[in-house]
Specification:
106 residues; alpha+beta; Arc Repressor Mutant, subunit A; 5 helices; elongated; WH-like_DNA-bd_sf; WH_DNA-bd_dom; ArsR family transcriptional regulator; WH_DNA-bd_sf
Length: 106
């Protein structure tokens, strides 16, 4: 049995970590800002705290998201931000999606 050939189809440019719908939504939300509060991302993406936590952990492990914890007054807060690598991976992923869809403007 021979190994599959890595072709030139744009799907090879998709990032498996980002491609999952919830993770893609998280990264897209974070791409629009320097950082965002956990609750804002949760509400924007319309997921529960536990789902967001699990998906952010996957993105953090991949080096795509940085998590910062702190306080606003006496209330604990968590902020999420894309790393430089996360921004680059998101841009590459979007470029691959546009190529698959036949958009050649990029």
């Amino acid at each position: 049995m021979t190994a599959p050939i890595q072709g030139s189809h744009p799907r090879h440019g998709l990032d498996e970590v980002i491609h999952a719908p919830v993770r893609f939504s998280i990264v897209a939300t974070l791409a629009a800002a320097d950082k965002a509060e956990f609750a804002f991302v949760r509400d924007t993406v319309e997921v529960s705290d536990s789902v967001l936590s699990k998906q952010v952990a996957t993105l953090e492990k991949a080096g795509y998201v940085a998590v910062t914890k702190g306080y606003v007054g006496k209330r604990p807060r968590t902020w999420l931000a894309l790393t430089a690598g996360g921004r680059a991976a998101f841009a590459d992923h979007c470029r691959a999606l546009r190529a698959i869809a036949g958009d050649t403007t990029d």
